[in-house]
Amino acid sequence: MMLKILLGAALFAVAWVLPLVKASAGTLSVLTAFNGGDGASPYGTLIADSAGNLYGTTLNGGANNSGTVFELTPPAAGQAAWTETVLFSFSNSTGTSPGGSLTADSAGNLYGTTQAGGAYDGGTVFKLAPPAQGQTAWTPTVLCTFNAGDDTGPPGGLIFDRAGNLYGTTRYDGAYSRGTVFELTPPAAGQTAWTETVLFSFNGANGANSFASLIFDGAGNLYGTTLNGGGLYSGNVFELTPPAAAQTAWTETVLFSFNGTNGNGPFGSLIFDSVGNLYGTTWGGGASHEGNVFELMPPAAGQTAWTETVLASFKGKKGEYPQGSLIADSAGNLYGTTNEGGADKHNGTVFELTKPVGHKTVWKETVLASFDVTDGAGPNGSLIFDGAGNLYGTTIGGGQSGDGRPGNGTVFELTP
């Protein structure tokens, strides 16, 4: 079995994620509603394999109420229901509260993070190996346990480089107790232990409390966001440059600091377009203090400052408080979710931002779906496309449990 991230960030990806068709307002379907025993509160972004099976994590629920890794299998021919399988239930020893997205290697192993638990209760990086032939159980391995001495609570997903090293962020601790960027190096020949290296510690002025996954450019530079920190403590966009020859220290550059008016508190990851512009969301700030979508353009020749443009500001029925990352189609239109707002102003939305054409400069926002609790509430993760233009995502609450009460979150599909 070979897993891939479905139209998501690839190794050293620098360009748009390109679905085959453009999405439009359509039909929202619940593929599964969690009931606690099979997981509760899915927070991260889904990934998929080449057969269309979906994989994700839940913060809570499962056998030990410490979170799960789950798989959703598409319906068989002539059927309509997706089949959910709990691949693994976490316990304190393996980590608790997996909130980030999964990533996979070419052998089908799944990798992720937990925000707590492990040997020092500071969270873990884990690997799940698929069952051996004739077996059904996935095998967990804890690759790294975090503690208050180095960094705790990695909330985001991981990314690979071409050499198989993993990179991620932590919210707290490090040299200044403001979070870190870390690297995990695979074991040397004949060894079993992965090696953790803290590449950078945030100090507040240069950022604090990163919740997002990182992305690479083609030169191996890392880009990310911090929820807090910066001059007005409204968060940053940063770049980390690898060490020069014979050096060991990575160099951080703050590309942009938010000030509230132009955004406040970026939770999500960034994406690049083909010319090197960065796009992302802020949870707060903007015209109505309910979040923005922003674009950052690289400096012009001879300049050093990146230029921010606010593409959309959220309010009320248009959505409120986006936390997930953006994705894009082949035309450069952007798609994302808001945690609140929508038709009933509470349960969140799926939105599209249509790229201006010709001499136009204003991006057009369209609400593709508003959640109503029965189909989900509070989407936090990013979306993914399939080849037909259907969108998939998770909500941290809502859905229906077996007894008819509001459930513990959903996996949804939005069909054009």
Map the helices and strands.
Layout: E1 3-4, E2 27-33, E3 47-49, E4 54-58, E5 68-73, E6 83-89, E7 103-104, E8 110-114, E9 124-129, E10 139-145, E11 159-160, E12 166-170, E13 180-185, E14 195-201, E15 215-216, E16 222-226, E17 236-241, E18 251-257, E19 271-272, E20 278-282, E21 292-297, E22 307-313, E23 327-328, E24 334-338, E25 349-354, E26 364-370, E27 384-385, E28 391-395, E29 410-415
| Order of adjacent strands in the largest pleated sheet | 1-3-4-5-6
Unreliable segments of 5+ consecutive residues: 1-23
Structural class: mainly beta
Q: Helix proportion of residues, in percent?
A: under 10%
CATH topology: Methylamine Dehydrogenase, Chain H
Distance between the termini: 30 Å
Domains (count): 1
Could you give me the name of the CATH homologous superfamily?
Answer: YVTN repeat-like/Quinoprotein amine dehydrogenase
Give the number of helices: 0
Could you give a short account of the major beta sheet?
Answer: 5 strands, antiparallel
CATH class: Mainly Beta
Tell me which CATH architecture applies here: 7 Propeller
Instruction: Tell me the series of helices and strands, N- to C-terminal.
Output: EEEEEEEEEEEEEEEEEEEEEEEEEEEEE
Content of β-strand: 25-35%
Mean pLDDT, as a whole number?
90
| Morphology | globular
Output the radius of gyration. 20 Å
Number of E-type strands: 29
Detailed description of the structure:
The structure is a single chain. With 416 residues, the chain is mostly beta strands. The protein has a single domain, classed as YVTN repeat-like/Quinoprotein amine dehydrogenase (Methylamine Dehydrogenase, Chain H, 7 Propeller). It has a five-stranded antiparallel sheet with strand order 1-3-4-5-6, with no helix packed on it. It has a four-stranded antiparallel sheet with strand order 2-29-28-27, with no helix packed on it. The chain has a four-stranded antiparallel sheet with strand order 7-8-9-10, with no helix packed on it. The relative contact order is 0.15. The N terminus is likely disordered.
